[in-house]
């Protein structure tokens, strides 16, 4: 997974699970970890916003209005 950030800025901190949207501090998410091999993220891991996701044969893209685009 790659995340777009403006030049010269660090990637935002991961506070939320990008699949279920729950806090990563609450503990491990084994079902989410297994699903990441097959599914794109649905939630922004930095701000918990629902992302716009597009799946194409060559991969996927997910866009957060606050933190930009991720591709896989």
Short description:
With 72 residues, the protein is mainly beta.
Describe the fold and architecture:
The chain is mainly beta and 72 residues long. 8% of the residues lie in helices and 24% in strands. The chain has 1 helix and 4 strands; from the N terminus they run βαβββ. The longest helix has 6 residues, at 30-35. The chain is globular and about 35 Å long.
Strand content: 15-25%
Overall pLDDT metric:
86
What are the segments in which pLDDT stays under 50 over at least 5 consecutive residues? 1-6
* Derived structural class: mainly beta
| Widest beta sheet: strand line-up | 1-4-3-2
Rg on CA atoms, Å = 12 Å
Give the H and E element order: EHEEE
**End-to-end CA span:** 5 Å
Helix tally equals 1
Overall body shape:
globular
The total beta strand count reads: 4
Helix percent band: under 10%
> What does the main sheet amount to?
4 strands, antiparallel
Q: Which secondary structure elements does this structure contain, and how are they paired or packed?
A:
Blueprint: E1 2-3, H1 30-35, E2 52-56, E3 59-64, E4 68-71
Antiparallel strand pairs: 1-4, 2-3, 3-4
Keywords:
single chain; 72 residues; mainly beta; 4-stranded antiparallel β-sheet; 1 helix; 4 strands; 8% helix; globular; disordered N terminus
């Amino acid at each position: 997974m790659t995340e777009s950030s403006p030049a010269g800025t660090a990637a935002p901190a991961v506070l939320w699970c990008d699949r279920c949207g729950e806090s990563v501090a609450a503990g491990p998410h084994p079902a989410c970890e297994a699903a990441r091999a097959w599914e794109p993220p649905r939630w922004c891991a930095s701000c918990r916003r629902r992302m716009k996701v597009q799946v194409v044969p060559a991969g996927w893209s997910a866009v957060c209005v606050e933190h930009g685009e991720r591709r896989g």
